[in-house]
Design goal:
Low-confidence stretches of chain A: none
Number of helices of chain B: 12
Radius of gyration of chain B: 25 Å
Distance between the termini of chain B: 39 Å
Radius of gyration of chain A: 21 Å
Oligomer: heterodimer
Structural class of chain B: mainly alpha
Largest sheet of chain A: 8 strands, mixed
CATH superfamily of one domain in chain B: MetI-like
Mean pLDDT of chain A: 87
Order of helices and strands of chain A: EHEEHEEHEHHHHEHEHEEHHHEE
Bound molecules: adenosine-5'-triphosphate, magnesium ion
Shape of chain A: globular
Largest interface: A-B, 37 and 29 residues
Shape of chain B: elongated
Strand order of the largest sheet of chain A: 6-7-8-3-9-10-12-11
C-alpha cells in the first residue's frame, strides 16, 4: 500500500516573545509544538492521533492540510511536496484534503445561510453554479440531513451543535475529497449526539474510501474509528501501531497510562485523571533526553542523556522508549 | 437512480423558490437600528432636516449671503434687527444672517460627509490590510498611525492650513489625517481576532482566495465599525471647520457657521445684543455634533456588544 500522506522529520516551532534577559543572552525561545515527527498514512487508512492537550495534535493536522508551514522537514501528499504548492496546484490540493472542526459553533460563517456555506467549496473550486444545488443535496443526504427544505435557508445560530457538525461534515465532503482530518470532532458536542456523529464519520469513511486522521485526547473514542493509532507526547510520537494492539498491549509507559485511563466502553463517562504524576512540562523547555522522563515511573539514567528513537518492536508497533531496547 | 432523477428536478426548483430577494441581515439591522434606539432616531431626524435645508438652500434663502444689502434710502442695511424682511437681521456690513445660516448648512454637511467618507474608507482599508496580512506591513502602518495620533489636533490643522492655504478641502484633509488612525486601529484589532475564527480557516481549507476571505468573510463583520467611525468623523470635521473659521483661518469665500461666529465676535455682536447673529449658528453646530454622537452611539450599541453567533 502506498502512502497518501507522508511526513518526514517535521518540526514546528512557534516563536514566543523574548524577555529582556533572553534578548541579552541572544536566545530565541520557541514553543516546540512538534519536534521531529515522521509518519506515513496509507491510502484509505484511518489513523487516530491521541495525546494530552498541548502535545501538538492540532498543529500536526494543520500541517498536513497546509494551513501552516513546518519549520523544518517535509510533508508530501500523493507524492507531491506541500511546500511547493501554490496557485492552481494549491487549489487542486484544497479540493482533495478537507477538515472537520472541533467547534461547530464557530466553523460556519454566521452571515452565511447553510446552503451558501455548503456550496462555498464548490464555488471556490470553480464548479458551474448549475451543479451546486444537486451536489449540496447529495452531501446533505450523506450526512443524514435529507430534509433539505428545513436547513438550506437557515443561519448557523438556528441549528443545534449536532446538526451544525453534520453541516460542517457536508461542507467537507461536498467536493468528494480523498483525505479528511477531523480535529476532535465531537469534543464540543453534547454527549447525547456524540455517538451519532462518530457513527456517521465511520460510515462516511467506509462509503467514500477516505483516508482519514482523527485527532482526539480520548483513546476510547478513536478506538471505534481507526485501525491505527499514533500516540503523541509533547511534540513527539511515542508509540504507533494497530489500535487493537495498542489498547491490548501498550508498550510505552505513557501509552499505558492513557490506556489505563480509558473508562469501561462508555464514552459518556467523565475522563479519569491519568494514573501518572505531574503535568505536561513547558513545551518551551522540554526535559533533556526522553521528554516523558520526569513523569515516567521507570525512568533511569539513560533517559536523561539520550532521546529514544522510534523503533519497530516484534509485534509491529513502533515505540520510542529505552525500556524496549 | 429514480430517486436521484426526481430530486434533480425538485431541488433546483425549491432553491429557485427561496431565492426570493432579501436584504442581507447586516443591512436590515443598519436600517432598523433607529427604531430601536430613540437617541439615534433623534440624531437621524436632525441630520435629515439639515440635509433637506442643504439641498433646498437656494429656495429657502433667496438672498445671496455675501451680498451687501441697501435700504431704500440708499444706506447700507447694517445691523438690522430681525424682522419680516430679514428673519434674523443683518450683520454690521449689511449681509442677511438668515441666508448665511442656511448656506452654512451646505458647507457644514459637505465638510462633515466628505471627511466621514474618507475617514471610514482609509481606516477600513488600512485596518483590514494591517490586521489580515500582519508582518512588516502591519508594523509600518501602525507606526504611522501612532505618529498621527500623537499630533495635537487644532495646532496641526492650523499649521497644515498655513502651508496649504485656507481652503475647505484642506480642513477635510487635516481631519482625515488626524482621525483615520482611530478607526484603523480598532478595525485592525477586530480583524486580528476574526482571522483566528474557525470559519475563516474553513474558507482557506475549502480553497477561498485571499481576496474572498478578506472581503467576503472578514470585511462584512467590521463594516458596522466603519459606520461608527464615519458618524464620529462628521461631528469632528464640522467642529474643526467651525474652530478654524472662528480663529480666522477659514476659507474667506466660504459661508460657514464658524465664519458667522467669527464675524459676530469680531464686530462685537454680543455687546450690541445681536443674539440672532451668533446664537443660531452656535445652536446648529451643537445640533449637528450631538446628532452625530447619538447616531454613532446607536450603532455602537447595536453592533459592538457581540457579533451574533
Ligand atoms: N499559533 C500558535 N502560536 C504559538 N503557539 C502555538 C500556536 N499554535 C499552537 N501553539 C502551541 O503549540 C503547542 C501545541 O498546540 P496544539 O494546538 O497543536 O495542541 P493540541 O494537542 O491540539 O492541544 P489541544 O488538545 O488542547 O487541542 C501548544 O503548546 C500551543 O500553545
Ligand atoms: Mg487541538
Amino acid at each position: 500500500m502506498s502512502a497518501l500522506v507522508e511526513l518526514r522529520d517535521v518540526v514546528k516551532h512557534f516563536p514566543v516573545s523574548r524577555s529582556l534577559g533572553e534578548i541579552v543572552r541572544g536566545r530565541h525561545p520557541a514553543v516546540r509544538a512538534l519536534d521531529g515527527v515522521s509518519l506515513e498514512i496509507g491510502a484509505s487508512d484511518a489513523v487516530a492521533v491521541v495525546g494530552e492537550s498541548g502535545c501538538g495534535k492540532t498543529t500536526l493536522g494543520r500541517l498536513m492540510l497546509k494551513l501552516t508551514e513546518p519549520s523544518a522537514g517535509a510533508i508530501t501528499f500523493d507524492g507531491t511536496a506541500l511546500g511547493g504548492l501554490s496557485g492552481a496546484s494549491l487549489r487542486a490540493f484544497r479540493r482533495q484534503a478537507q477538515l472537520v472542526f472541533q467547534n461547530p459553533f464557530d466553523a460556519l460563517n454566521p452571515r452565511f445561510t447553510i446552503y451558501r456555506a455548503v456550496a462555498e467549496p464548490l464555488l471556490n473550486a470553480g464548479i458551474p453554479r448549475a451543479e451546486h444545488a444537486d451536489r449540496v443535496a447529495q452531501a446533505f443526504r450523506r450526512v443524514h440531513l435529507p430534509d433539505l427544505e428545513r436547513y438550506l435557508d437557515r443561519y448557523p445560530h438556528q441549528l443545534s451543535g449536532g446538526q451544525l457538525q453534520r453541516v460542517v461534515l457536508a461542507r467537507a465532503l461536498v467536493l468528494a475529497p480523498r483525505f479528511l482530518v477531523a480535529d476532535e470532532p465531537v469534543s464540543m458536542l453534547d454527549v447525547s449526539v456524540r455517538a451519532g456523529i462518530l457513527a456517521l464519520l465511520r460510515e462516511v469513511r467506509d462509503d467514500m474510501g477516505l483516508t482519514a486522521v482523527y485527532i482526539s485526547h480520548d483513546l476510547a473514542l478513536v478506538r471505534y474509528l481507526c485501525e491505527r493509532t499514533v500516540v503523541m507526547y509533547l511534540g513527539t510520537m511515542v508509540e504507533d501501531g494497530p489500535t487493537a494492539e495498542i489498547v491490548r498491549n501498550p508498550r510505552h509507559p505513557y501509552t499505558r497510562a492513557l490506556v489505563a485511563a480509558v473508562p469501561v466502553p462508555d464514552a459518556d463517562q467523565a475522563r479519569a485523571p491519568l494514573p501518572i504524576a505531574g503535568n505536561v512540562p513547558d513545551a518551551r523547555e522540554p526535559p533533556s533526553g526522553c521528554r516523558f522522563r520526569d513523569r515516567c515511573p521507570h525512568a533511569f539514567a539513560r533517559c536523561a542523556e539520550e532521546a529514544p528513537a522510534l523503533r519497530e518492536t516484534a509485534d509491529g508497533h513502533r515505540v520510542a522508549c529505552h525500556l524496549d531496547n | 437512480m429514480a430517486e436521484r432523477a426526481e430530486e434533480r428536478g425538485v431541488i433546483p426548483a425549491q432553491l429557485a423558490a427561496r431565492r426570493s430577494w432579501r436584504l442581507p441581515p447586516i443591512v436590515q439591522r443598519l436600517l432598523t437600528m433607529p427604531l430601536r434606539d430613540p437617541f439615534a432616531f433623534v440624531g437621524i431626524v436632525i441630520y435629515l432636516l439639515f440635509l433637506l435645508v442643504a439641498v433646498f438652500a437656494d429656495r429657502l434663502a433667496t438672498t445671496d449671503p455675501t451680498e451687501i444689502l441697501f435700504l431704500s434710502t440708499g444706506k447700507v442695511a447694517a445691523n438690522m434687527p430681525p424682522g419680516a424682511e430679514y428673519p434674523l437681521g443683518t450683520t454690521n456690513l449689511g449681509r442677511d444672517i438668515y441666508a448665511q445660516l442656511v448656506h452654512g448648512t451646505e458647507s457644514a454637511l459637505a465638510v462633515g460627509l466628505s471627511a466621514a467618507l474618507i475617514v471610514a474608507l482609509v481606516g477600513t482599508v488600512v485596518g483590514l490590510v494591517a490586521g489580515y496580512f500582519g508582518g512588516w506591513i502591519d508594523a509600518l502602518l501602525m507606526r504611522i498611525a501612532d505618529m498621527a495620533l500623537s499630533l495635537p489636533f487644532l495646532p496641526f490643522v492650523i499649521v497644515l492650513i498655513g502651508f496649504l492655504g485656507p481652503d475647505t478641502s484642506n480642513v477635510v484633509l487635516a481631519v482625515v489625517l488626524l482621525l483615520w488612525p482611530n478607526s484603523a486601529r480598532v478595525i485592525r484589532s477586530q480583524v486580528l481576532s476574526l482571522r483566528e475564527r474557525s470559519y475563516v480557516e474553513a474558507a482557506r481549507v475549502t480553497g477561498a482566495s485571499q481576496a474572498r476571505i478578506l472581503f467576503v468573510h472578514i470585511a462584512p463583520n467590521i463594516l458596522p465599525l466603519s459606520f461608527v467611525y464615519a458618524a464620529i468623523a462628521i461631528g469632528w470635521a464640522i467642529i474643526t471647520e467651525a474652530s478654524v473659521s472662528f480663529l480666522g483661518f477659514g476659507d474667506p469665500d466660504n459661508v460657514s457657521w464658524g465664519m458667522m461666529l467669527q464675524d459676530a465676535f469680531a464686530s462685537q455682536a454680543l455687546s450690541r445684543g445681536q443674539y440672532a447673529w451668533f446664537v443660531p449658528p452656535g445652536v446648529c453646530i451643537i445640533l449637528v455634533v450631538v446628532a452625530g454622537f447619538f447616531i454613532s452611539r446607536g450603532y455602537e450599541e447595536v453592533f459592538m456588544p457581540r457579533l451574533r453567533r
